[in-house]
Amino acid sequence: MDGTMKMIQRSRFYYTRYNNTGPIKMNRVYSKYSQECAEKFAHAHPDVTLPPSPLQTTAAFSIKNVFPADRAMELSQFITTKIEENDPRFAKDDLQVRIATPLKTLGTVILDVLKNPEIDRALLNFFRGYYRVESIAASRTLPTNRVTGSWLWHCDTFPPCTCKLFLHLTPANADRGATEFMDRKDTMAFRDAGYFGQYPNERVGNLDEFAAAHNIPYRPFHLDAEPGDVTMFNQNYFHRAIAPKTSFRDTVQLFFLPNPVPWKEQYDKDPDFLNNNMVSFPKDPAIPGSSSGGAAGMMGA
Ligand SMILES: O=C(O)CCC(=O)C(=O)O
Ligand SMILES: [Fe+2]
User: Fold this and answer.
1) What is d(CA 63, CA 38) in angstroms, rounded to the nearest whole number?
2) pTM score, whole prediction
3) What residue ranges define each of the domains in the chain, with the CATH number in brackets?
């Protein structure tokens, strides 16, 4: 990226508008597509009013008891068993265990989370219309002293008008790996002071000193969760993963894009899509799984 583009993408006007400092083309294409999906929904549902989503102004909020707690705990136990068996679908390093093809490995039962009316409403409100699942990940974060990548304060630099959901399979809390978040106001204050957390090499683990030096508040928050709870998450507000102190934390992560038809209708067209899609987000949001719109390694969620 040349210096002029970088200056534009890091200007207040730009990041206030798109809530990221990513490429203009990505932001324009996604904003336009999202608008089209929302207009289509509004046209077909003139009597439905969708209140604004809390994710407009903050990184995350909780929806409790979405998924049966005993099923969530069973899935966590299953992960433990498979790790002990050295199952190759459970790839372990010092930070985490990544679970391959979650819908196959853990089962399509995880999509039941979307049958919860509160979740559906929260997503409809965020997208101002229909949405689809673009990808699914699942992982166990582990106790470690190493702080790197997503464990540093960052913005995923994903397209605007996208969001994620964490389904918790274990508790998450201050001692047990709950993600730390900032709201919109604080995220913008850090950007105004020159912190962007985009590329891995410009991220820091603790923003205490930076905040003090720039006279801005540093007040990250986390959300306690129990098995079966959901965290709704706007990944373009600053956040960082926290290594659990006591025991591992398990989550399933669903990533959403706007869509012209309901997620289930989209899913039924190609139920295997979510097992094969390796793209972080598509270049063309209208085409699920179209070639990658961003190298995960470059920006890094
Ligand atoms: O695992 C976490 O707590 C947060 C990871 C993260 O940065 C993300 O999902 O974008
Ligand atoms: Fe992230």
Assistant:
1) 24
2) 0.96
3) 3-299 (2.60.120.620)
